Amino acid sequence: MKDLKLVICDIDSTLVDSKRNLMPTTRETIEKLHENGVYFGIASGRPLDELQRYAKIWGLSFEFDFVIGMNGSELWDNIHQKEYSYFKLKKEWIKEIIEFMRPFKSNYFIYYHDKLLAKGIDDMMIKSAHTSDKEIVVAKSDADFYQEENAKIMFRVTEDIMPEIEAYVEAHPNENYNGFKTQTTLMEFADKRINKSYALKKICEMNDFELEMWLPLGIRLMIMRCLR
After folding, report:
1. CA angle 98, 131, 154 (to 5 degrees)
2. Which of 40, 107, 165, 166 has the lowest CB atom count within 10 Å?
3. Model pTM?
4. What does the pLDDT look like over 41-64, one tens digit per residue?
5. Does the domain made of 91-191 have the CATH classification 3.40.50.300?
């Protein structure tokens, strides 16, 4: 325990249950890590502004030391009060991706200035807005999506066509970005260089942590073992 400096945990299917509730035993474990001087942070594909609220929602006595958002494209260092961004999709890439996905019926959207900028409003988009606590803004045209660089663009589709989309994406690899399924009805595109591990390494570099001293944990039992 004395050599453990940093714990970064994914959220869904890791820290929280299916209803996104933090279990009391997990909260207790996180508090023990903090009491023992271990830096604690979370990582997710969601934006920073949404993730930073979870410390209060979960009833923790402290703010997260580090928050990795947008699959590693965004990083908040609470120790030094600094925000960083890495490898966002270029504007022309976003335009290209929209055209690439044109053969499939979808409702595409991006996180844009604390809002959800979407092609249209449907039940799934309303659910996403509720989950993320964000207002939906309907794009006037596709050009709205590539006004500026963005960490990712997402395409909500019906579950029955997802296998066809996955095969289509796999058959047309791109040197700049990757397409990947994150839900049965959600395909995302992001710069192929970005991942949560990249942001983790940046945390270590900026805070003089040895790489072998950070520990990304995925299962609550693993966290419990490190406390014994």
Report:
1. 10
2. 166
3. 0.88
4. 999 999 999 999 999 999 999 999
5. no
